[in-house]
Amino acid sequence: HFNSFPRLRKAETEAALFFQIFPNVSVTIYPHSVYTLLTFPSEVPGRTHERLSLLMAPGAKKTSDVSDEYHEKCQSLMDFVTNINDEDVVAIENLQVGLRNARSRDMHGEFLPKYDWPVHRFQNMVLSGLHGNFVNEGIMPVLSDEFASSL
Fold first, then answer.
1. What is the chain's Cα-based Rg?
2. What's the pLDDT tens digit per position in 82-103?
3. Closest C-alpha among 97, 100, 6 to residue 59
4. How far, in Å, CA of 86 to CA of 84, rounded?
């Protein structure tokens, strides 16, 4: 569909990298493009404003693509990314409703380390930031170098 960034190894042409910059920046790097997602608070509790940008690699356009075809492919890619983001928003908003309902019923659950560590980590980052402290490294995940070692 698109040419990749130059100098990528085979494993890198089939992978995506996801970065979160606390508190509101997400960067996704694919072999042919970069997506940025900025989130901003709104005046409505539990809602945010988002700005999603798609940045294509300078050489992403295939030589066989005419301009209109390339722009259509880019729009299809943006539609796909927007759809995935919209699905994530629905999931997160439903999680917020569940948390609000649990709190109103005085229900307390446990974090499941396998699934909830990003939420636990983020909440601790917010609390640490509010208190002017550094993030407790003990809550950071143990990262694997499996991908990097395959290069």
1. 19
2. 999 898 888 777 777 777 777 7
3. 6
4. 5
